Amino acid sequence: MISRIDLRGDALPEGGALRDLLPRAEFDVEAALEKVRPICEDVHHRGTAALIEYAQKFDGVTLEQVRVPVEALKTALDELDPAVRAALEESIRRARIVHREQRRTEHTTQVVPGGTVTEKWVPVERVGLYAPGGRSVYPSSVVMNVVPAQEAGVESIALASPPQKEHGGLPHPTILAACALLGVDEVYAAGGAQAVAMFAYGTSGPDGCPPANMVTGPGNIWVAAAKRYFTGRIGIDTEAGPTEIAVLADSTADPVHVAADLISQAEHDPLAAAVLVTDSAELADAVEKELEPQVAATKHVEDRIKPALAGKQSAIVLVDSLEDGLKVVDAYGAEHLEIQTADAAAWAARVRNAGAIFVGPWAPVSLGDYCAGSNHVLPTGGCACHSSGLSVQSFLRGIHIVDYTRDALAEVTHHVVTLAEAEDLPAHGAALKARFGWKVPTP
């Protein structure tokens, strides 16, 4: 059901050589880019008409308008299962607690007497958020995108989610209910690359969508490719690939827990990655044995879980020691990393590359997906070595404000002129000399 990679016996290679030994899903955004380009440009030129046409082509629905009526949001919330509403409200509450603490404050540094640099943090004006609606419905992704944007102070928030044939061309009602709970009433029935194009270019008309400064949210390869296409025109969070879990475990780990956690990510998608890294062959055997009955007892077995576990992106990786295991998980840079070892907190503190780290047996990834308070929009495909998950910071821009007096400028002018001339940019220096009668002040 799941393959093994045995890295025991020899010294582990370094850097890219080690990464090349580890399992990873194929996710060719560059190839998808050429397919989404004409879709994006069609939306650019035809706007809402193109969105309606693609809803028919890709989602099998006939739309009269793309924007979801506010009444539909209210109805979805009124009809929401009370237990689901309570769970969403708790998820929102916990996410707000965490994300509110992330808000940076303005800070002024006195560089010299009379010379200050202030860094202020300004939210982007408008964001377009994407909530997937393919194999599963993800109201949790609505929470994870909207809450940090709101806590950052973003004034204009719109959300897009694919239209659903079984729901009359509207996005899934649980998505709509989550938007209503969060106070987001600008919602569009649009999916895939065309939704990203709608946010990037904007559309006109009575139910048109003003262009956004930034687009965030997970999606399929077409969404990722559209984000790449528009990078530079809009800000993005990340080109999200298939979800992944890595578990660093030793002989103290419970194989029932480990197997359940691997399966929990495998049920997302046949390309989902489930990786166990362990120095215990006995644990590896026990987990492999435990996978069989747990997979058989759950849902989405043939279309998602079995292909995900059997795919080249999933494996049990055997290492000589936890030190080697730490090197492996750092090289892998998992979206979600669980540490199920003795003294798990100490090992977790040494991890450098992960989207989010889950410490010990009582912090499974599923907790982070919904109600830990952390964000579940995280870097995939090894991007955790250079990128962070979605947060309040994602929606803020740091702006430096430089304020110098005449005396403070005079004191440093000779250095500026010297550096300008060293770079053969004499007009840079002249901009200062002009303020002092074209003479360089004596320090």
Q: How does this model look, in words?
A:
This protein is α/β, with parallel strands linked by helices and 443 residues long. Helices cover 44% and strands 17% of the residues. The protein has 17 helices and 14 strands. Strand 4, helix 6 (139-152) and strand 5 (156-161) form a beta-alpha-beta unit. Helix 10 crosses helix 12. The longest helix has 19 residues, at 82-100.
Task: Identify the notable features of this structure and list them briefly.
alpha/beta; six-stranded parallel sheet; five-stranded parallel sheet; 17 helices; globular
Chain-wise SSE layout:
Elements: E1 4-6, H1 15-19, H2 29-46, H3 48-59, H4 70-78, H5 82-100, E2 107-112, E3 115-123, E4 126-130, H6 139-152, E5 156-161, H7 173-182, E6 187-189, H8 192-201, E7 214-216, H9 221-230, E8 235-236, E9 244-249, H10 255-266, E10 273-278, H11 281-296, H12 301-310, E11 315-318, H13 322-332, E12 334-340, H14 344-349, E13 354-359, H15 365-370, E14 396-404, H16 406-422, H17 426-433
Parallel strand pairs: 1-11, 4-5, 4-7, 5-6, 7-8, 9-10, 9-12, 10-11, 12-13
Antiparallel strand pairs: 2-3, 3-14
Helix pairs in contact: 2-3, 2-8, 2-9, 4-7, 5-6, 5-7, 6-7, 8-9, 10-11, 10-12, 16-17
Q: Categorize the overall geometry.
A: globular
Class computed from helices, strands and strand pairing: alpha/beta
Number of helices: 17
The mean pLDDT is 96
**Uncertain stretches:** none
Radius of gyration: 25 Å
Question: What fraction strand?
Answer: 15-25%
Strand order of the largest sheet: 1-11-10-9-12-13
The helix fraction, in percent, is 40-55%
Largest sheet: 6 strands, parallel
